[in-house]
Design goal:
Distance between the termini: 34 Å
Strand content: under 5%
Largest sheet: 2 strands, antiparallel
Order of helices and strands: HHHEEHHHHHHHHHHH
Radius of gyration: 20 Å
Helix content: over 70%
Number of helices: 14
C-alpha cells in the first residue's frame, strides 16, 4: 500500500503509539509530508490520525514483533519495504485472529442450526475464502474487523439465548465485542443498538417480563460500556473532552480546532 493511502491511517496510529508514545504524528508529517497528507488533522500544535483507536490498539503487538525482530534488518537492506511490512504485521495479528475465531464460531453456529459437520466446515471455509475477506485482510481496513466483532457478538447472543442456564458472562462478552466495534468505528453504534434490541425482544418474548428483559439488556450494555470506556479515556487524555470535539477527533475533518 502507498504510504499516503487512507487505509494506512491505522498503521500510522499504531506506529505513533509505539515509536513516540503518543498518537500525534508530527515526526511522520515532518519526515514525509506526502505520506501524512489526508491522514491527519490539526489540533492545537499537533497533528493527529483521523481514525478510531480500536483496530490500532490491537495492532500494537504485531508492530512490536516486527520492530523487535525484522525492522533493523529491513531498514538497513530495503528501507522502502519498512512501511509495507510494518503495515502487514499491524493488520495480520488482529485480523487473522478475529477471522479464525469467526470461522470457528460460524462452524459452531451452523452445527447448532442443524447442519451436518461437513456442511458446517464448508460454511466456515466459504466465509474465510470469500473475496471480500481476502481483500480486506491485506489492508488495515476497519470494516472487516467491526463486521466480525458484530458477527461474533450475535453468535454469542444466540448461544446465550439457547443456553438453559443463561450464563451472564456470555452476555457481558457479547456486549464488550459490540462495544469494541464502536471503539473501532462509530458507525458500528447502529449494530450495537440493534443487538441490544435483539436481547430485549428475545428475553421479553421468552419470559414475558419487562424487568427480566431490561435486566439482561442492561448486562449486555454494561459489557459495551466497558469497551467504550477505552474510547472515552482516549478522547479525554488527548483532547480533554469526549464530547465537545468528538466529531472532529473521529472523522476526516481538515480543521484547526485550536481556533
Amino acid at each position: 500500500l502507498a504510504p499516503h493511502s487512507l487505509l494506512n491511517r491505522y498503521a500510522y496510529f499504531t506506529r505513533g503509539w509505539v515509536d513516540f508514545g503518543a498518537v500525534h504524528l508530527d515526526d511522520y508529517r515532518l519526515k514525509d509530508p506526502q505520506a501524512a497528507k489526508n491522514l491527519v488533522f490539526p489540533v492545537a500544535d499537533y497533528y493527529y490520525v483521523s481514525a478510531h483507536p480500536g483496530l490500532s490498539i490491537l495492532g500494537i503487538p504485531g508492530y512490536l514483533v516486527y520492530k523487535m525482530t525484522l525492522r533493523t534488518l529491513v531498514l538497513s537492506k530495503a528501507p522502502k519495504l519498512d512501511f509495507f511490512l510494518s503495515n502487514l504485521f499491524v493488520c495480520f495479528i488482529p485480523l487473522v485472529i478475529v477471522l479464525a475465531i469467526s470461522a470457528i464460531a460460524i462452524r459452531a453456529f451452523a452445527l447448532r442450526l442443524g447442519a451436518r459437520p461437513p456442511t458446517a466446515v464448508l460454511s466456515a471455509l466459504a466465509f474465510i475464502s470469500s473475496s471480500l475477506v481476502l481483500l480486506d485482510t491485506v489492508s488495515l481496513r476497519q470494516t472487516l474487523f467491526i463486521g466480525n466483532l458484530m458477527l461474533l457478538s450475535f453468535i454469542l447472543l444466540y448461544f446465550w439465548q439457547d443456553n438453559k442456564r443463561k450464563t451472564k458472562f456470555l452476555l457481558l462478552i457479547a456486549g464488550f465485542l459490540a462495544g469494541y466495534a464502536v471503539v473501532s468505528d462509530i458507525t458500528a453504534c447502529i449494530g450495537l443498538v440493534l443487538l441490544a434490541a435483539y436481547v430485549f425482544a428475545s428475553r421479553f418474548q421468552t419470559e414475558k417480563s419487562w424487568p427480566v428483559a431490561l435486566r439482561h439488556t442492561a448486562i449486555f450494555l454494561l459489557g459495551a460500556l466497558i469497551a467504550l470506556s477505552i474510547l472515552f479515556i482516549y478522547l479525554c487524555v488527548y483532547f480533554g473532552n469526549p464530547f465537545v470535539k468528538y466529531k472532529h477527533c473521529l472523522f476526516l475533518v481538515d480543521r484547526d480546532l485550536s481556533q
